[in-house]
Please model this.
Amino acid sequence: MDEKSQDVDIKHIAGLARLNLNDSEISRYETDINAVLTHAEQLSKVDLSDVSPTAHAVSITNVIRNDDEGVSMSRSNVLDNAPDVLDDELIKVPVVISSNSEDSA
Amino acid sequence: MKFDVIIGLEVHVQVMTKSKMFCSCPNRYGSDPNTLVCPICMGYPGVLPVPNNEAIRKTLLAGLMCECNIALYSKFDRKSYFYPDMPKNYQISQYDLPFCEDGKVVISGKGLSKEFVETKPIGITRIHLEEDVAKSTHFRQCSGIDFNRAGVPLMEIVSEPDISTPDEAYIYLTALKQIMQYADISDCDMEKGQMRCDVNVSLKSPESPTLNAKTEVKNLNSLKAVHRSLLYETERQSEVLEGNGQLIQQTRGWNDDIGETYILRTKEDAADYRYFPEPDLMPVEISSDYLEKLKKEVPETPAQRCARFIREFAIPEYDASVLTSNKSCADYFEKCISFGSDAKKTSNWTMVELLRELSQANKTFDQCPVNPENFAELIKLIDNKTINGKIAKAVFSDMFSSGKTALEIIDEKGLKQVTDTDEILQFVKKAVESNPTPVQQLKEGKSTALNFLVGQVMKFSKGKANPQLASDMIKKELS
Ligand SMILES: [Zn+2]
Model:
């Protein structure tokens, strides 16, 4: 189990999940994650040549809906759940980028 | 040193539907902020998204229009990242099994610089379906988020790196836009963010087989910005390479005000999206029956319609390409023809008079105050010589501003062309008597004098005389 530990960069993984871990937490997660990886390693040794691939654990497809318009929440309800509000209409968040760019995705 | 330029485009197109991608909130632009949201598109814990059938149908249609292979088995994946525009910290997208793959869009025509680009196929790598994110507005001290856009169905159309110039990129985007509009998939109004573009640019020296590191420029919100940013990036990268510098792979933003790109992040801190299959959504299977049915629904592409206009209406290629470049223009034109107006004349009148009035009034074809039936009638009135071309232009302006029909205006203002020879003869006699010098010149064979005399007849008749008839009668009078 321990031979895998140097492959896992817990700090990097924690960073991706926006988690701030102390040293003892890092070593604990190192053990846990390595256990998960070892388990996955074992699974990958199973002979699956007769099994067709799937994208989901449940074998159901096409759970879809018709394009019907429904009713949205009231704005006051939406903004009640926000940590902070701008002009009673926008959700206020800290500045993320300082450029004039508008969106991320 | 001259470099080869290699450009690939990632184009985001909002799909026109009644409701959002995974919830039933209305998919509508321009509503008050945060009024079209629900627990699903706000990403509250414990909610269950359900895909919109119509968004999938239109994505498949887009794929068929772009000659893609349609995946009979497809799924959604989670793309993880942290940003306030996506509060559940992942976007539902598609990773390895997109709906459409391996297509092409054939481009040709004039680019933004008016340079002509020869016919060239641009490969489409894939078209996948995802959810749009919220709209952020940045202020000095904070940002404000409006979730109305979050969850709107969004297609991402990824091209092969087949594009070599900013003009080709411009034409490709125009072609995509036309395709989406033709199939009612999207209005692609870039000002409303319904079509957004990221570009990938890299340079290669013609002698070398390897590409230099590429730059991705994100969030280009107009065709012009795409063109300008590509020119800027090509220049910037050439300068680095010519100065023996090293390019590093990076993501840049575009500042439209100063016309420059700026660095957002380099490869080292590139996003790690950790895609994995979306457990809340079941895979989508497309039956071959459904696919066959869909293939029958695929509308004529702009290129096919252009070819048909040339064939069916015997109009020049230039006319056909102008008319079909905008779907509602092509619809309008075809409607006119169905009311029996002459094709070539209708084409001229549409391209010159109608387009001018529309652009002056800042109106679209759908808002045109003159309907195709009345427009066709006006052209028929020229053809059967009820009015001459010059008066027709004034009548048309009047129709456009008043909404009246051509016949109403002609009756009201007594503009009917005079074809009664006795009546015209009066004017001809008057023109001849009062203009001895031009009459003499005409007798000596100076043909410009004839134009002058016809002009006099037109003036006496207040523009209503048939000019051809007037010309014939002047010649007869003097012979
Ligand atoms: Zn919603």
User: Anything to note?
Assistant: The interface with chain B takes residues 16, 18, 55-58, 60-73, 75, 78-79, 81, 86-87, 89-105 of chain A (CB under 8 Å).
